[in-house]
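Deliverable D5.2: sample structural annotation.
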Amino acid sequence: GLRPGFVTQPMPRFSGEAVTPSTVDVFINDQLRRSLGVPAGPFTLNELPVVTGAGQARLVIRDALGREQRVDAAFYSTGRLLRQGLSQYAMSAGTLRKALVTGDPEYGNSYLSALWRQGMSDTLTLEARAELEAGVTRVAGAAATFALPAGEAEISGAVNENAGRIHWLGGAGYRYVSPRRSATLRWDQSDDGFRLAGVLDPALATQRQVTVTAGQQLRAGVSINSGWIDQRAANGQAQRSANLSLIWNLPRGTAVLLTAARTSFAERTSDSLRLTLSLPLDKNQFASVSSEGGSLRQN
C-alpha cells in the first residue's frame, strides 16, 4: 500500500538474441511500451508493463546498422496470482453486526478470520483461510489458483463442524480475458449443514451456485456481453437469471447500452428490457436518460 508501483503478479518474460549491441522496441498489442538497449548475445526481458489477460508481444531488435529482426510471443497475465516467493496475509477480529437494524447498532457473536496466500511459482498460488464465529461455526479452507496456456483456473474447498458433524464446501472456476473477448465459469456447492461465519439464516444460505459469463467485441466500439446464474438455497428455493447486453460507444464519449434480462424465483418469472443513453458533460459530470419496460408472471 505504501509502494503503488510494486507489482505483485507474475510478469511475462520475453527472450531474444542480438548479434551486436542493439536496441529493442517492445510492443504490447501493437502499442509501443518500452525501448531499451541490450548487449550482444541472448537476453531476457521482464518487469515490462503489460495488460491483464491475454495479449500479444512483439520485440523489434535493431542493431547499429539498422538491421531488424522480430520476435512474436503470446502471453497471459493475471492479477490473481502472486509472484514466486511473495506472501500476502490478513487478519481481522471483532463482533458481527446484525443486518437490517434501525436505531442504535446491534452486534452479535465474536468473529475472527485469517488469510494466507503464497506464490509457490509464477504459475501457482496457494491460499489458506480460517473463520470463527463464536458458538456457531469454525471454518477451514484452502484454494489453489494456477495459470493455464489460455486463461486461469481455481479450485477451492472448505470444511466446518456443526452439531458434531463435518460439512464441506467445494468450488472450481475458470477465467479468460483478452482485448476482444472474455469468458468465466464458476461452480460452488456445499452439503446440508455447511455454514460460513456471519450467516444469519442458514436456510437462506446458498448451497449451489453456477455462474457463466461471456463477452465479445463485434467491432471497434461495439461489444456484446451475456451472463447466466443458477442459484439454490439450503431450503430448496431456486433462482435463475440470464441477461444479454449490447454496448455501443459513440464519438465524444457518448454510449448506448441495451440490456435484456430474465429472472425466475420460486413461482415467478420477470422479464425486463432497458435502453440507456449516456452523455459526458464535463470531466467529472455526465447525464443519462433511460427507458425500461418489463413483465411479471406467475408460473
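Annotation notes: The chain has a mean pLDDT of 88. The CA atoms of residues 119 and 125 lie 4 Å apart.
The annotation will be released with the project's public dataset once the embargo ends.
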